[in-house]
Amino acid sequence: MASIPIEHGLMLAGVLFSLGVVGLLVRRNIIFMLLSIEIMLNSAGLAFIVAGARWGQPDGQVMFMFILAMAAAEVAVGLALVLLLYRQFKTLDVDSASKMRG
Amino acid sequence: MLDLLWLVPTIPFLSFLFLALFGARVSRRVVQLFGVGSVGVSALLTILISLSFIGAPPEGHAYTQTLWTWIGVGEFSPGVAFHLDALSILMMLVVTVVGFFIHLYSVEYMADDEGYSRFFAYMNLFVGMMLMLVMGDNLLLLYLGWEGVGLCSYLLIGFWYKDPVNGRAARKAFVVTRIGDTAMAIGLFLLFTQFGTLNIQAILQKASLQWASGSGYAVAAAALLLGGAVGKSAQLPLQTWLPDAMAGPTPVSALIHAATMVTAGVYLIARTNVIFTLAPTVQAIVAVIGVLTLLIAGFTALTQRDIKRVLAYSTISQIGYMFLGLGVGAYTAAMFHFMTHAFFKALLFLGAGAVILAQHHEQDMFEMGGLKDKLPVTFWTFLAGSAALAAVPLITAGFYSKDAILWYSLTSKAGSTWLWIGGILGAFITGLYTFRMVFITFYGEQKMEVEHHPTNTIKIPLIVLGALSLIGGFVEMPHSLGGFAPLGHFLHSALPEVQAFHHGIGTELLFQLIAAVVSLSGIYLAYQFYYKPSDVPASVAESAVGGGFQRFFFSGWGFDRLYDILFVKPLLWFSRVNKRDAVDAIYRMIAYITQGFNFFFSRTQTGKVRFYAAGIAIGAVITIAIVVFL
Asked: How many CB atoms lie within 10 A of CB B21?
């Protein structure tokens, strides 16, 4: 099996992460922000898998399992928050939920 | 008998505690019983102790009773200990006996006052503190009493605190004496660093061994102690508080501001006489202060209208005589004058109080008059006191004590003609202002109805003190009149004898004659001016020069105004300018900076999730950049 060089994998992970960050910062729709966070989590997972493959260790895949579980939990909570936000403000714009500021 | 010594100050203290805690709840009878009774028991005990001391003098003519160690810090362990010798016995006798009669008098004088128990509580506390002052065997205990009597003086001057004028007078007395007390405290520090102890007898012994005559330390210590004495005894330049202290009730003026507390300075100098002997310059200053004070206060007393202010200035003047005596080394003569002065000045204040009570609380002498036949007991006893104050020869106590001081101011090795001339001029003025007061108050037309006729509780103190003012001088007769002097003999066991040039009895008689003639001529002049209808005083007051002097003297030689301009006004100005304390600026700055940070960081609290996320992202980028590139 022709191995993919580690640099390529890490670069892909970096690009995905940056896309996630940018998406998080520029999107105002909270669902898109959650999606961006998922992208960032997956990019981190990808980085683990690539590193695990490079060293021939299972730890990377174990970590990915963790991340996957955590992302599922996070999405469950996040979607609950989305529902509450929508009930409260009748919109999905996060900037509308800026009342609690000092 | 001597081991009962501790009871003498304890009884007034206990009575004070009782009156302070329960005084408002018990009847006036009980207040009287405790207030007067405690001082009476103290006086009886003092008399018994003195008799047993004189009958069988302890070894070294001194007895020390140590109750417990007050503070123990390394080498420094002042005890609560009482020292009994001739000097403290004399002071204790005067404080308790005269104090008892003044307390008795107060029973009636203060009868209508709502602060009855408060008054007696303060008075008892005062007696206890004063006893502490004179009995303390170390300077720290003495200082405790010294500040304690100052506190009582403050409380009692401002006794009628509802009138702001009284509170002002009380604060003035407190602050002005505090200046002297600070000097004294520094003096105590100096003595402690030099000798490692504050025990008076030990200090006196070590001082004469360690310090040469006129050495710097001796001069500094003596000058600092003198500062304390000057403040407490209302001498130049700190005399301004005493006339205002007359704002208090009259028995207070009699007890604190005439008989006892103001003479604490005299006691202090007499007690530490060794230090003053080692500093001849300071001792000379003591004499000069005495003479200047007695003249300034005498001239001021000449022009006063308020009977209590006349007596206040006269007190300053008489303490000036005591300082003169101390300054020329005639310690026994000064203490003798202290004793007779306590008798006749307490009497005069009590008499003045009876007059004030009879005249609807009027204190202006010119509103009184013709009281001679209306208040016979008050008049005759007041006359006896005035005669003693004016030093009427032979029959009054004041003559013997003042004459002793005048004689030694001339013949002592530290004396001089100038001091004597000052003293004799003072005697003339004393006669003049004393009988001016008597004639204006008791003779002439009656101007006001007599409201209050004194009963026995006022009469008895007046009569007893009147008798003492007349016969109290026979315990110390000059050489020319037999030289019967048990008091001087007794005091010499504690105080050094005066170093005087020897003069024959003829010379002494001659100078006594001069003193007698001078004081009598002062009285005669008062008789001419104020008994007979005379327009001399009025015309003098109306003439340009005379009126100027009159106003100058009336204001107490302008000292109050001078101090106002020199100290009070600048201080007030400075405190106004510095209302926002300069030091506080530092702390205000800290508050400003904190507020600034708060403002800045509270801006970042936008409530926008994306803003926070950006913050995290930028922070992460910066952190990684630092880790990677540095």
From this structure: 10
- Interfacial A residues in 7-66 facing B (CB < 8 Å): 21, 24-25, 28, 33
Mean pLDDT calculated for residue range B489-500 = 81
Identity of residue B274: V
Q: Which of residues 596-625 of B touch A (CB under 8 A)?
A: 602, 605-610, 613-614, 617
User: For testing the chain B interface, which of A19, A25, A32, A85 should be mutated: the one with the most B CBs within 10 Å?
Assistant: A25
Count contacts between A and B (CB, < 8 Å): 28
DSSP SS3 for B535: coil
**pLDDT tens digits, B464-474:** 999 988 888 88
Contact criterion met (CB below 8 Å) for B326 and B334? yes
> Which of B608, B616, B618, B624 is most worth mutating to test chain A (most A CB atoms within 10 A of its CB)?
B608
Closest among B332, B321, B328 to B285, alpha carbons compared: B328
Task: Name the closest residue on chain B to residue A29, using Cα atoms.
Answer: B610
- Confirm if B415 and B280 have CB atoms less than 8 A apart: no
Q: What is the pLDDT of residues B69-97, one digit of tens each?
A: 888 887 888 888 898 888 899 999 999 99
- Is the CB of A92 inside 8 Å of chain B's CB atoms? no
The pLDDT mean for chain B works out to 87
Torsion of the alpha carbons at B317, B321, B326 and B327, rounded to the nearest 10: 90
Chain A: closest CA distance from residue B609 (Å): 7
Residue B2 CA to residue B54 CA, distance in Å, equals 11
Helix axes B544-554, B280-303, angle to 10 degrees: 120
List % helix, strand, coil for chain B (3-state, nearest 5).
Answer: 75, 5, 20
Enumerate the residues of chain B whose CB falls inside 8 A of the CB of residue A39. Answer: none
* Cβ atoms of B8 and B92 closer than 8 Å: yes
Q: Nearest-CA residue of chain A relative to B598?
A: A102
Q: Is the dihedral of CA B456, B460, B461, B463 positive or negative?
A: positive
CB contact (8 A) between residue B607 and residue A98: yes
Predicted TM-score (pTM) of the model is 0.80
Contact criterion met (CB < 8 Å) for B607 and A24: no
Sorting pLDDT into bands at 50, 70 and 90, what band is A100? Answer: low
Mean pLDDT on B549-558: 81
Closest partner residue to A98 (CB to CB) among B602, B606, B613 is: B606
| Cα–Cα distance measured from residue B100 to residue B36, given in angstroms and rounded to the nearest whole number | 7
- SS3 sequence of B36-97: HHHHHHHHHHHHHHHHHHHHCCCHHHEEEEEEEECCCECCECCEEEEEEEHHHHHHHHHHHH
- Whether residue B608 and residue A33 make contact (CB cut-off 8 A), yes or no, is no
Q: Which amino acid is at B228?
A: G
Across the interface, whether the CB atoms of B614 and A25 are under 8 A apart is answered yes
Contact B187/B291 with Cβ under 8 angstroms?
no
Q: Which of B602, B610, B611 to mutate to test the interface with A (most CBs of A within 10 A)?
A: B610
How far apart CA B396 and CA B532 sit, in angstroms, is: 25
User: Can you tell me the mean pLDDT for B58-75?
Assistant: 84
User: Could you report the predicted ipTM of this complex, rounded to two decimals?
Assistant: 0.83
B226 within 8 A of B280, measured Cβ to Cβ: no
HSE, side-chain direction, 13 A CA sphere, residue B98: 38
Alpha carbon distance B36, B326 (integer Å): 33
